[in-house]
Write a structure and sequence with these properties.
single chain; alpha/beta; Rossmann fold; 9 helices
Length: 269
Amino acid sequence: MRWEDLTSGDFAKAVETSKRTCVLPFGSIEKHGGQLPLGTDMFCARYITEEAAKIEPVVIFPFYPFGQMSGGMNVPGAIAVNQQVMITMLHEIFREISRNGFKKIIIYSTHGGNSYLLPSVVFDGLFERTDYVPYYLFQPDLSREAADKVKELLNGGNFDGHAGSIETSQIMAILPELVKMEQCEPEGIPNYDRLSHLKGLGAHIVTPVDWHADHPTHQSGDPQYSKPEIGAVIFKSMINDTAKIFKAIKDDEVVAGLVNEYFETSWKI
């Protein structure tokens, strides 16, 4: 159920049908090689959550395009918002979602860069007591059956990353008119690995230019193996598993109880 599609009266019913659970699809607006639309991650997040909601009803929050994107500002089209502004905005959105009757808010991300930001927003729930519980969820891994099928369909290609055959296949499956294969950038296939001198030191080192160092063309992989059939297999697996996760969170009573316990037992002067 898409929030914006509901009438006011239907919205009130949807709050109950969803067991007061709302999903905020979280992607990004950024370059995806030369052949894919800027909204690739956002489109995938929206598609997976909407299809999963048909299996396990939840209310889907409207398009939210502002993912963590500081590493993509050097190319046309990216939208990057200051991290502190993003955090403040998310807490405001959470309050509005809660004010409308939801007690569980699932932040569903399909953009790897969000993994640096969104868990910390969830952890903020222990600074101030609220009447809702946030859950962060990154898209589930493929089932073994789906992974085997994708490997077969790749026919020599690899399970690659950003704007490679996997993501290109996904957009081919749902928005083929937005895929411009004639604009592929062959120079995006190799990993430039320009920070190799910091790897293998026995520690995980993060720098501001990790992504740019390896993938200056904003592509990680070879899209030549892309097929819409691959995207369909990937989406089917992710949608089914996402629906199961939605149900588990809807039925969950443990997290809210533990949050209450945390505040009730917190040391106070």
